[in-house]
Specification:
The chain contains 7 helices and 2 strands, in the order ααααββααα. It has 197 residues and is mainly α. A two-stranded antiparallel ribbon has the order 1-2. Strand 1 and strand 2 form a beta hairpin. The radius of gyration is 23 Å and the shape is globular.
């Protein structure tokens, strides 16, 4: 029986008016402020938002930017090698490359060394798009790093982060984003959270 067909009808209460948002706790007073994981998480969330906003019109967003940048440098050769290097599932990489190719930003060419493999190359339009996207991303990164003091701090931060990333990448190369995420959060793919792969 529906609510309207009974002698009594239910009325939905009016939604409460939301008051002004309360500011979050001051980072200095947060019990986690000295925790590396907390700090990395906050910076990572900020970077994701900034990069997604800056690259929203590019197929694949930030991931598409990485693929296009690698294709412009012709660094990784085959589609499979590029997927491994960027830690992208090969099936996801196929869809991503399809979108970039449809937009006229990359092209797949047979690899002269292995006709079964495809090399991923940026088109002239792709290189122009990459240059524009790189400027927007750099501006977003500068805004993100504006909380650091002076001109030297952002450069030092980038250099230290690059050094650490290279060290960790050599010690434990990425097999794939899904595998790495599952390892970190402890899921085995049997009913855990859906991963953005």
């Amino acid at each position: 029986m529906s609510a309207r067909s009974g002698s009594q009808t239910r009325s939905n209460p009016a939604p409460e008016k939301a008051g002004p948002e309360k500011p979050g706790p001051d980072a200095d007073s947060c019990a986690l402020s000295d925790d590396l994981g907390w700090a990395l998480g906050v910076v990572f969330r900020g970077y994701l938002r900034a990069s997604q906003d800056a690259l929203a019109d590019l197929p694949g967003g930030p991931r598409g930017f990485q693929v296009l940048a690698a294709a412009a440098r012709d660094q990784h050769g085959s589609q499979l090698a590029l997927a491994h290097r960027l830690g992208v599932d090969r099936t996801v990489m196929t869809y991503l490359l399809d979108d970039l190719e449809t937009a006229g930003l990359i092209e797949r060419r047979p690899d002269p060394a292995d006709r079964r493999a495809r090399r991923i190359l940026a088109t002239a339009r792709g290189r122009e798009t990459l240059a524009d996207a790189a400027q927007r991303l750099r501006a977003a990164e500068e805004r993100l790093l504006s909380g650091l003091d002076g001109e030297q701090d952002p450069r030092t931060f980038r250099a230290l982060l690059r050094q650490l990333a290279r060290h960790l990448s050599e010690a434990d190369p990425v097999r794939g984003t899904c595998d790495a995420t599952a390892e970190v959060i402890g899921t085995d793919g049997s009913g855990g959270p859906v991963l953005p792969c």
